Amino acid sequence: MPYTAMVSLEHFYYGQLVHYGEPVDERRIVARSANITEEMVSAANRYAMLPTLPNTSMSTWAVVRGGRNAPFIMVQSGIGAAGQEMRHLIFINGDTLRDLQGNLTLLTTLLDGQLPTFEMIANIQDPLDLATENIRSIDQQTDDILTLMSLTGNNTRNLEPLLSAIVQGVPLVVINAPTSEQTRTQFVQGLITLLPPSTRFSVTFATYRQREDGITAQISFMDQAPEGDALVYDWTDRSLSGTQTKDDYSHYITSQLRLDISLALQQAENLTQVAGWRFKSGDKLADALAYASKRQRLDDALDHNMPVSMADAGEVLGNDPTLSPDLQYAYAEHLMNLGLAMDEMAQADSVAPLLKKDEDIANLIAYLKAPN
């Protein structure tokens, strides 16, 4: 049997005990795994007390940031079989979430089909096991985007402002959506699939929240539009209101969707190493994607012998550790050719550190500088 990487996740249940078939008023921790700390509980109480969806037995769920002591918290909230309020809070570190590459379908395996009933404080629970190598195939990701397009009217122009809000850090609020947890999850899954895999983990969401509930998420489903800075998408007529932004990456990817979904996914995949490097180095998502998109354009330009400025080529060659050896060679050759032609060799300084590291580049420089 092939080995599957697994991680163990600490978790606890918070809600009402049930006595004689009736819920007890007081909310408390009713079950927990062994390594839950006071700091984790405090973070959950502060950031992850997701409300229940009114007038329905369906549960809601979210992935939110929990601060220094709990980087990400996954929470499910609902009403149990005895009418008791119950939340299940699961703690996930950033590396684990990054490894999932936005696979929400895998995360949903952690959700309870029916939130449990506790008549007394439970014994210590086992941690939850989650496989981290079940990455969605291109065909599955294509289905994710096709589903999203169906949910938004099969018009890619409807997607660009939604994706732009996520990239630019503007909260996206969806109102008048179907109450189906599956439909709401499919909407979120499709949107984050439009991002490079290495950055998808950063997008937080809540399939239901209310004003003043303490939940902070980049994608939220709400009963009514909030006050303040947000892009509001009305599911009923697919209209937008509030803060709308422009974003080069979002425009580029959605324009690719009009040609070929698999091509758009491949373009996003191509950006994943570069965007991931910039994101881990401290860039905001918008800045990381803007640089990755620019790198893609520069790479394509060099590949097709199109003009690239010495400043841009020098910046990439001198600072970008994600360049492959072939691309290092291409950028170095371009800089030397331009520098010699324009008698501006000072702008080709970024080639110098590579001369001792790469024999092919050293031979190239010697060839180009040799008298004709």
Keywords:
single chain, 12 strands, alpha+beta, 18% strand, 372 residues
What is shown here, in short?
This protein is α+β, with helices and mostly antiparallel strands and 372 residues long. 40% of the residues lie in helices and 18% in strands.
Task: Explain this structure.
The chain is elongated and about 85 Å long. Strands 3-2-6-5-4-9-10-8-11-12 form a ten-stranded mixed β-sheet, with helices on both faces. A two-stranded antiparallel ribbon has the order 1-7. Helix 5 runs antiparallel to helix 7, helix 11 packs antiparallel against helix 12 and helix 12 packs parallel to helix 13. Helix content is 40%, strand content 18%. It is an alpha+beta fold and 372 residues long. It has 13 helices and twelve strands.
